[in-house]
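Example record

One chain of 309 residues, shown exactly as stored in the release files.
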Amino acid sequence: MHRANQIAERQHGLVHRNDLVRAQLQEHEIRRVTRSEHWEHLGRSTYRRTGAPRTHLQTVMAAVLQTGPGAALFGPTAFWLWLYDNTAPRQPIHVMQRSGCATSSLRDVRLHRVKDLSEPWVVMHRDIPVARPPLVAVQLFSMRRYEAAERQVDRLWSHRLLSGRSIEGCLAELGASGRNGIGGLRAYLAERGPDWVPPASGLEGRVMQIMREVGIATRRQVGSGEEDWTGRVDMKCTGWNVLIEAQSELYHTSLSDARADALRLAKLAEDGFVVVEITDTEAYHSPRVAVQRVQAALRSPQARRMRSD
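Predicted structure tokens for this chain:
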């Protein structure tokens, strides 16, 4: 019972029978869980811990578990999860699963069969399996009118869940598969270009505001690097070689490859920049700390004035 509770804590109060098997519970232990009054049977070998809060995240997790092995959120519901704001997901819940699985349809769930669910394109976000944002963009263009998909993909980009480079990588890897939505995403990127700068996110605007209040001028979303283009950063202190990156702690931990990020920051330092990372927690709840860190960077021996900006 203890191991079942541990699994449920990681899965929004839910367990699937397969989870118990993978946890190496004996058959009599599994029966004790599934027949216990402490567990509510939701159907499809999925159980909810009695007393666990009923949440929107639990609802979509139940849909994934009930769909079966290898399932993950798809398209509109994946978009909802990446930008989750505590509102309920629209029905039906969209779930994808590899072609060839024998799962039948569920009430209030739309099942999408896909050719490939390879690991790089499915990740855990808020402890729920979900398509990565570039794949979500393809899926949105496969289902929505162009204008509607365009607006949603713009939102993913403005929240730094997408970039021109990540879309290019997705198109390069998946473009030859004939997957629905590829053409729409190609047209979307061609219209904007890989270096397009979306409207500032709320977090970026907040960081610029608190810097402006103490007299630190910034210029938003600039390319950085010397001979090689190291990458786009959120903002640069005008007239200085000090860069600021506004990081949403949730998105950053979900999407970032720590090793790649460390290499990029090392390259920026090698190019002569001082980089200050400010989290959303600091920007909204500890602005003084964020300002002090930028001021310290401007006073550091590595900081210097730039001839042009």
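Notes: Residues 225-230 have pLDDT under 50 and may be disordered.
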